[in-house]
Write a structure and sequence with these properties.
alpha+beta; OB fold (Dihydrolipoamide Acetyltransferase, E2P); Dna-directed Rna Polymerase Ii 140kd Polypeptide, Chain: B, Domain 6; three-stranded antiparallel beta sheet; about 10% strand; RNA_pol_Rpb2_7; DNA-directed RNA polymerase activity; transferase
């Protein structure tokens, strides 16, 4: 791919094919080889694709090879690195931090005219919750705010160590020299109504840094995807295109609301009930009602682990669920049993009729079949 290209998830960044192992060719494959030559050779696609949910512009391509004298890991002949970047606007959910461990996420973004403003009309850029100071007791952020406010007014920059820097008296003196209140608090006005707030608020200049935890990288959703080979549960994490973990505490929440059917669905057909999830998918496609769930695979894993401890666990109670083949076999068997019962009851009636006619002194007739008798007679 070239530098400057706009790309989105699923686009090929580096094309690469890997030959498959030499295998015996079938007649069809031999014919294809004869027609197309070596192009029809068994190869698999092992290209580098842009990851799911990513997009941007290619800004740099670096190629490393042993021929050029680059140091590469054992067995690697050539390595290609493609750098993809995109320009983002700050948004709700992005993480930011000061220089005193005072990190947090953005909860709301409003137009500049709705932000509180000072008496001279200067709007505030960012509002931080005062609860962040009480819980952490990192007062350095307050001292930085006060000193930054004074330094901006006086037109100079400050460089001070974190824990062994300016004293409180020095900051007070600088605020006083800048013509600001000694406590660093000023009256603010509501951006929407224009009325002043009741209490003075700490205002100043401080560093705010962008952290690499952005909501756009974290958002993730999936319908169907890869499952774990052992437990048959969906994999975890965005990188594996996994599902959302529904843990112990989330189960308690649904139990508290009494949402039994939702909980059963999440723990079976949306997770590791292999038969149930395929039948549920089939029922949704056909527009039918989803049938009762089966035993989840994680239960079978537990039983297998208990067998490893020499404990034989058997599942008792309830009617066992039959496979489609077993259901058909049972149906055929049931029909045969029913036919046998009808034949048996017919011969019994025949014998009974003969006995009754002999008792009454009537001549028994040759019976060729059964006649329907009214029960009242």
């Amino acid at each position: 791919i070239r530098i400057g290209a706009e790309i989105s998830s699923g686009d090929i960044l580096v094309g690469k094919i890997t030959p498959k192992g030499e295998t015996k060719l079938s007649a069809e494959e031999k014919l294809l080889r004869a027609i197309f030559g070596e192009k029809a050779k068994d190869v698999r696609d092992s290209s580098l694709y842009l990851e799911h949910g990513e997009h941007g512009k290619v800004v740099d391509i670096k190629i490393f090879s042993r021929e050029e004298g680059d140091k590469l890991s054992t067995g690697v002949l050539k390595s290609i690195q493609v750098s993809v970047a995109n320009l983002r606007k700050i948004q709700v959910g992005d993480k930011m931090s000061g220089r005193h461990g005072n990190k947090g996420v953005i909860s709301k973004i409003v137009p500049v005219e709705d932000m509180p403003y000072m008496a001279d009309g200067t709007p505030i850029d960012i509002i931080l919750s005062p609860l962040g100071i009480i819980s952490r007791m990192n007062l350095g952020q307050l001292l930085e705010t006060h000193m930054g406010f004074a330094a901006q007014k006086l037109g100079y920059k400050v460089a001070t160590p974190a824990l062994n820097g300016l004293r409180e008296e020095d900051i007070r003196n600088e605020l006083k020299r800048a013509g600001l209140p000694e406590n660093g608090k000023v009256k603010l006005h509501d951006g929407k109504t224009g009325s002043a707030y009741d209490h003075a608020i700490t205002v100043g200049i401080k560093y705010i840094l962008k952290l690499n935890h952005m909501v756009e990288d974290k958002i993730h959703q999936r319908s169907i995807g890869p499952y774990s080979l052992i437990t048959q549960q969906p994999l975890g994490g965005k990188a594996q295109f996994g599902g959302q973990r529904f843990g112990e505490m989330e189960v308690w929440a649904l139990e508290g609301y009494g949402a039994a059917h939702t909980l059963q669905e999440i723990l079976t057909i949306k997770s590791d009930d292999v038969t149930g999830r395929s039948k549920a998918y089939e029922a949704i496609i056909k527009g039918e009602e989803i049938q009762k769930q089966n035993v989840p695979e994680s239960f079978n894993v537990l039983v297998s682990e208990l067998k490893g401890l020499c404990l034989n666990v058997e599942l008792l109670g309830g009617t066992p669920r039959l496979t489609e083949e077993e259901e058909i076999a049972a149906e055929i068997k049931g029909k045969k049993i029913l036919e046998a019962e009808i034949v048996e009851s017919a011969s019994d009636l025949k014998d009974e009729y003969k006995t009754m006619t002999e008792k009454e002194g009537l001549a028994p007739e040759e019976l060729s079949g059964l006649s329907v008798v009214n029960p009242e007679e």
